[in-house]
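> forwarded from #structure-qc
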């Protein structure tokens, strides 16, 4: 759910110094690859990086996650259950057909039920009770209940063309047949495991892009990605390893673009099931009783983690220790909640009180190519847990496209995952990650451990129904305080993110970690 095209309307850029007959092309080395081109298939960053170049949403965010108009130019709630949204005039799909209210209604209807989605948009549209076309550019929405952040929800769903997408299968998007959007670039081709090709959309409603053609090469290996930039094989790379930042900054002709992000890296714990697949006794035999169901055990695991040591030794300082979902600066952050301090003695005491004086066995799962240091962080957690008396049966690292399926299917007991907050408040993230799974209510879409806390659910319902902005933020803070005291997940850190490119490029480093040619330009 990531896009910042509106932001770039104010970013000045000139074209490369080239002969008139030579095209201004861009080659990006990306650490991740999409699992599908259908923009509604998955809200994960690897998919959204591609979606936001080809498709648009009703609203978008700037580099600091402030919400701005995109395909919608205005919106207002005429009463607590009624919203009227005005669409931008003159927007055309890549096939030349105009954007209409019918396309938006179709898109929001389609988004609630995409087969096999690992991270669906269903929560974004769950508040909708009905939609009605007022005219070609005006839609009236009725919500099931008062929903003050309604535009934060529906606004981040990608809009597809009804004529093209109706009845289309995932293969139709992957081949390009149905990959028809209104975005700044047109889809040309996707060769899985290799590259994706885009071409500039000269009829784009926003700022004209600097690049005629864009090639996105998928280079998951960090060293290979950096080497590709240094050799000139690519012009821009994302997910620069923190340890390489200073080196790249010292190379003539290259520069680094950095920012603090709102992505929380966390350890998810299987606290809902009575038995967990990778929890054992000290001899490796399955435990009949799942210790992760006990908040004392979850708190103990959190206290066994030396977050600052991980940040300093593995991430070269490119992170901030976290104790809640969103960092300071994002509405809903509670300044009173600090990152849990490393305290091995207290952790052992809590384990003993919970009946696990001698510990228990656990396996940690992780991706190995989703964000810088993911596999190394998992190894560090394993060492810290072992020093705290647990028997770490293994640390299993997998490619993200494989790993995310297992995590979503509930195959793990303790696993590292992340959530990038890309909306102006913490409400959407809290709703998707920590509320009880309820598809009809649009809650728990990313709740891979099936954690459930009815008191928190009620607190969130109260907070998200409050139209007074100040009161709503205060209620979100109270809900945050309540839920993180229960340790549903163990927050580790918010990462600092880096891109690097040739000196004749500009890039808008952003809190949502978007990697897209839309944010790139040619330097003056």
């Amino acid at each position: 759910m990531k896009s910042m095209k509106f932001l770039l309307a104010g970013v000045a850029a000139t074209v490369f110094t080239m002969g008139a007959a030579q095209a201004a092309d861009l080659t990006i080395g990306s650490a991740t690859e999409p699992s599908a081109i259908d923009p509604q298939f998955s809200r994960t960053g690897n998919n959204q990086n591609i979606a936001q170049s080809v498709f648009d949403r009703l609203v978008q965010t700037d580099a600091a996650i402030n919400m701005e108009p995109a395909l919608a130019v205005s919106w207002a709630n005429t009463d607590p259950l009624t919203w009227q949204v005005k669409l931008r005039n003159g927007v055309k799909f890549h096939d030349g057909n105009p954007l209409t209210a019918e396309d938006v209604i179709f898109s929001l209807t389609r988004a609630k039920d995409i087969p096999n989605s690992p991270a669906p948009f269903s929560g974004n549209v769950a508040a909708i009770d009905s939609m009605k076309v007022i005219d070609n550019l005006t839609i009236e929405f009725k919500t099931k209940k008062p929903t003050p952040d309604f535009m934060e929800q529906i606004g981040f769903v990608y809009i597809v063309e009804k004529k093209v997408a109706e009845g289309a299968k995932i293969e139709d998007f992957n081949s390009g047949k149905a990959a028809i959007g209104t975005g700044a670039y047109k889809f040309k081709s996707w060769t899985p495991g290799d590259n994706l090709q885009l071409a500039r959309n000269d009829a784009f409603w926003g700022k004209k892009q600097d690049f005629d053609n864009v090639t996105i090469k998928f280079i998951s290996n960090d060293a290979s990605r950096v080497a590709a930039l240094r050799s000139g094989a690519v012009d821009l790379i994302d997910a620069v390893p923190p340890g390489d930042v200073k080196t790249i900054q010292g190379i003539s002709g290259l520069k680094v673009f950095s920012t603090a992000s709102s992505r929380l890296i966390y350890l998810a714990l299987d606290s809902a099931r009575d038995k967990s697949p990778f929890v054992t006794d000290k001899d490796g035999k399955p435990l009949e009783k799942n210790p992760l169901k006990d908040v004392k055990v979850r708190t103990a695991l959190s206290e066994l983690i030396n977050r600052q040591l991980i940040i300093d030794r593995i991430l070269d300082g490119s992170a901030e220790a976290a104790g809640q979902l969103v960092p300071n600066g994002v509405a809903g952050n509670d300044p009173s909640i600090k990152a849990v301090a490393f305290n091995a003695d207290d952790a052992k005491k809590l384990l003993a009180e919970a009946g696990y004086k001698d510990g228990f066995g656990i396996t940690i799962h992780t991706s190995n190519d989703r964000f810088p240091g993911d596999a190394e962080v998992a190894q560090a957690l394993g060492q810290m847990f072992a020093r705290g008396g647990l028997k770490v049966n293994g640390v299993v690292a997998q490619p993200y496209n494989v790993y995310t399926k297992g995590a979503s299917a509930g195959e793990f007991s303790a696993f590292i995952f992340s959530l990038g907050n890309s909306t102006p408040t913490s409400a959407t993230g809290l709703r998707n990650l920590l509320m009880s799974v309820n598809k009809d209510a649009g809650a728990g879409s990313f709740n891979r451990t099936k954690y459930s806390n009815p008191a928190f659910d009620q607190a969130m319902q109260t907070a998200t129904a409050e139209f007074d902005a100040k009161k709503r933020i205060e209620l979100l803070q109270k809900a945050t305080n309540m839920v993180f005291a229960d340790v549903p997940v163990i927050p580790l850190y918010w990462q600092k993110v880096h891109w690097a490119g040739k000196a004749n490029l500009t890039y808008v480093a952003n809190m949502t970690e978007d990697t897209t040619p839309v944010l790139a330009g040619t330097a003056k």
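QC bot note: Residues 45 and 514 are 8 Å apart (CA to CA). The chain has two domains: 7-253+503-522, 263-495.
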